[in-house]
Structures are given as C-alpha cells and as structure tokens.
Structure prediction request, 204 residues.
Amino acid sequence: MSFPKTFYRWRPHPWHGIDVGEGAPEFVNAFIEITPFDFVKYEVDKYTGFMHVDRPQRSSSHPPALYGFIPRTYCGDNTSALNPKAGKGDKDPLDICVISERPISRGEIIIRAKVVGVIQGIDHGEADDKIIAVLKNDNIYGEISNISELPSVIVERLRHYFMTYKLIPGEDSKFTIEQVLGKEAAFKIINAAIKDYNEVYGDA
Prediction:
C-alpha cells in the first residue's frame, strides 16, 4: 500500500518532523506545550517526541499565553551571538508565546503564528529568547504587526511570568530579561536559530 506525499504514515517528532512553517520568519508553525490553563510545566521529550511532565509549577504564576516552540530551530552559536550577554545558547528549540483572543485550552497542537517581537532573555548565562507572536487570522490580534501595538499589560504579564516561573523562595532569579524588541529583531533570531538547527541536524 502506498501513501500520498502529504500524508504522515507515522507520527512526526514535534521538533524535527514538523516544518518551521511557510513564510518564516514572519509566519511560523508553533508547537504548543502549555496553555494559560496549565499549572504543570509540560515539555516534549527530546528523544521520543512525546509530552512529559517537566515539573509542577512551584508558584501560582501561570503562563499568560500559549507557550511552546518553533520546530526545526535550535539555540546555538548563531542565536546566542545576537544576545549580547549570553555565553552560549541553551541548545533547545526556540521558545514562542502565542497570543489569541479566544481561549485555547489544550496543548500538543500546531498553530500558525505571526511573529511580532521577542523577549530577549538569559537563563543561567545561556540565551533563552522568547519569541512573541499572535495567532494568525485572530479576530482581535491578527492585524497587529509589531509588539509595540500589543496592549502593554500583555507584555507586562509575559515579562512577569518569565521572571518568576522558575523562582525559588529565598533565591535570586536565574532568568534575566535583557531587552524587549520588535519584529525585525525577532526575525533575525528566528533565522539564526534555523541556521543553528541546520548546522547541528542538517537541513533535510
């Protein structure tokens, strides 16, 4: 029995088996791991591609947007070079937060996202940038083209979440935010992460 070329006979690995998306770096595919309704940090297991529980969230803070990664990206030398204070990349796919007007309550989905900016972060000395995007064709946010057009409270919530989501009482945060930048900077980071991925895993 033969299968059409557009049919995945086997479930693809979310990081390696899904395309970065047509129209990148402005429009990308985002694989969503956690939603604003989750109080547990879910992550894709890098070996199997299945979801696993990374940790229950220690604090009451929960993500203010859909949170996942851009397939076939990798935070390596090219990506960390764009983050002035980073010693190296975190060797993970590039994180992305996607804002939508309608609540989306389930993870482990692929959505089309329009990139509008980036929160440039460092975690334990490693580049850990957070691409900010809106759901493509969203009825409220779909026309936004740059992070400066988002309501400031949304960016404030994103900043607060990343500054606190790993915080342990009595210890200083190991995550710092260097800058919040617009779409052009985000495009450069995505292109660098694609280049890093191709150098590490090949471009096939």
